[in-house]
Write a structure and sequence with these properties.
The protein is an alpha+beta fold. The protein is built from ten helices and six strands. Helix 1 packs parallel to helix 5 and helix 7 packs antiparallel against helix 8.
C-alpha cells in the first residue's frame, strides 16, 4: 500500500508538472495573440510620437487582464487535453490501467491545477481587471502628454497636434504660467486663425483629453475663406479648447466600460440605471466576474475524459478540441444571455448556465472513463455524421 501511494504521488507530480508547463506556454501564446491587435496601434506612438518602449510595455501589461479572463480557463482546458492525450497516445494510460490504478485518480493533479487557475481568474476579474483599466488610462494619458508637452519647450514650434502649431517663449514652471504664446490653428480648411497672447495657462483634461487654453492680453486673427472675411480682435481674456482624442490609438475608451468596473462600481451603476435592459446587463457583468473564472472547474470534468480517450489523432488534435470546446462555451454564453434577456430569467441562472451545461456533459463522459475503447473521438463523430446523412437521403 505504501508503495502504491508512493507511485500515485509520483504520477500526480509528473502530470501536474506537465500540465503547468503546457499551461504557461499556451497562456503566454494565447494572451499575446489577443493583445497583438493593440500592438499595431501602440507602435504608432513609438514611431510618430517618440514614446519610450517602457511606456508601451506598461500599456501592453495593463491591457492584458481583460484577455486573461478568457485565456486562463482556455489554457487550462488546452493543457489538460494535450497532456492527458499524450499519455493516452504513448500508452501510459493503458499501463496505469494494467497496474490496477483507477483513472479517476488522475483528477488529483487536474483538480489542483484547476483550483489554482480558478483563484487566479477570480483575482483577475475582481482586483486586477478594474485596477489595470485605471492604470492603462493613466499611462495612456501620460503617453499622450509626452507627445504634446508644451510647458517644458521654450522657444520651440510644437507641431505634434495635427493642424496646430504652438510656440511658447517663456515658461514659469513654479507657477505654471506661460509668456509669449502663439497658436496657429489650421484644423478647419475653411477657417484659419492665429492667436497671440502675452500670458496664459494651458491644461490637459485627463478624462476628456480636452486641451484648454486660457489666454490673457492678446490678439485673434481669423480668416474665413468662403465669406472672404478677415477679423482682428483684441482680448483681455480668451478661452478655447481642442480635443486630442484623435491622438489616442483607436478603440481605446477613456472611460470605464462595465466589465472593467469592480463590484462596488457596478452596484452603483445598477442603482443609477434607468432601463430594465441596462440593469440586466449590469447584473450579468457582476455574476460573470465569478462565472467565467469558475468555468475552469467545469472544464475539468470534460478535459480529463476527452484527453484520455483522444488516442492517435494527430499532434494538434488536442489544441483543436480545446479551441472548439471553448468556442462552444462562448457561443453558449452569448446564447443564454440573449435568451435570459428575452425571457427575463434570473441573471444568476443565465450567467452560470453554460458552466452547468459543460459540467453535465463532462459527467456523462466520465461514466465510462475506465473502459477501453477502440475507436477515436473523431471516428465516432464521422460515424454518427454518416448515419445522419444516410437517414436524410
Amino acid at each position: 500500500m505504501n508503495l502504491l501511494a508512493s507511485i500515485n504521488k509520483k504520477i500526480y507530480l509528473y502530470i501536474f508538472k506537465e500540465i503547468i508547463q503546457i499551461l504557461l506556454l499556451s497562456l503566454a501564446v494565447l494572451t499575446f495573440i489577443m493583445v497583438i491587435s493593440r500592438i499595431g496601434q501602440l507602435t504608432d506612438l513609438i514611431i510618430n510620437k517618440g514614446v519610450e518602449l517602457k511606456d508601451i510595455f506598461l500599456l501592453i501589461i495593463y491591457s492584458s487582464p481583460p484577455y486573461l479572463t478568457f485565456t486562463l480557463p482556455m489554457s487550462f482546458l488546452l493543457s489538460t487535453i494535450v497532456v492527458l492525450g499524450r499519455l493516452s497516445t504513448e500508452n501510459e494510460v493503458l499501463a496505469l490501467k494494467a497496474s490496477g490504478i483507477d483513472l479517476k485518480y488522475l483528477f488529483a493533479p487536474v483538480i489542483l491545477t484547476g483550483a489554482i487557475i480558478t483563484l487566479i481568474g477570480l483575482l483577475n476579474t475582481i482586483v486586477f481587471l478594474p485596477n489595470s483599466g485605471d492604470l492603462f488610462r493613466k499611462t495612456l494619458i501620460n503617453v499622450v502628454k509626452k507627445g504634446i508637452t508644451i510647458e517644458d519647450r521654450e522657444g520651440i514650434f510644437n507641431d505634434n497636434i495635427p493642424g496646430v502649431v504652438i510656440y511658447i517663449d517663456k515658461v514659469d514652471k513654479e507657477n505654471k504660467r506661460l509668456r509669449g504664446i502663439l497658436v496657429s490653428d489650421d484644423r478647419d480648411k475653411d477657417i484659419r486663425q492665429m492667436i497671440s497672447a502675452n500670458r496664459g495657462f494651458i491644461n490637459l483634461d485627463p478624462v476628456t483629453l480636452d486641451l484648454n487654453f486660457l489666454l490673457e492680453d492678446g490678439n485673434l486673427h481669423r480668416w474665413e475663406k468662403k465669406a472672404d472675411i478677415y477679423r482682428n480682435l483684441y482680448f483681455k481674456e480668451y478661452f478655447f479648447s481642442m480635443n486630442l482624442e484623435k491622438n489616442v490609438p483607436h478603440n481605446v475608451p477613456l472611460r470605464k466600460r462595465p466589465y472593467e468596473m469592480d463590484t462596488k462600481e457596478l452596484k452603483k451603476a445598477l442603482m443609477n440605471a434607468t432601463s430594465a435592459f441596462d440593469r440586466y446587463d449590469i447584473m450579468l457583468e457582476i455574476f460573470k466576474k465569478f462565472s467565467i473564472p469558475l468555468s475552469t472547474l467545469s472544464f475539468m470534468f470534460l478535459a480529463v475524459p476527452l484527453g484520455i480517450r483522444r488516442r492517435v489523432e494527430g499532434k494538434f488534435s488536442g489544441i483543436l478540441y480545446s479551441l472548439l470546446l471553448f468556442i462552444l462555451y462562448y457561443v453558449l454564453m452569448a446564447f443564454t444571455e440573449n435568451i435570459g434577456k428575452t425571457l427575463g430569467a434570473s441573471a444568476f441562472i443565465t450567467s452560470f448556465t453554460p458552466n452547468l451545461v459543460v459540467m453535465i456533459i463532462g459527467l456523462c463522459f466520465l461514466r465510462n472513463l475506465n473502459y477501453e475503447e477502440h475507436t477515436t473521438i473523431s471516428e465516432k463523430i464521422k460515424h454518427k455524421w454518416r448515419g445522419y446523412i444516410e437517414k436524410t437521403k
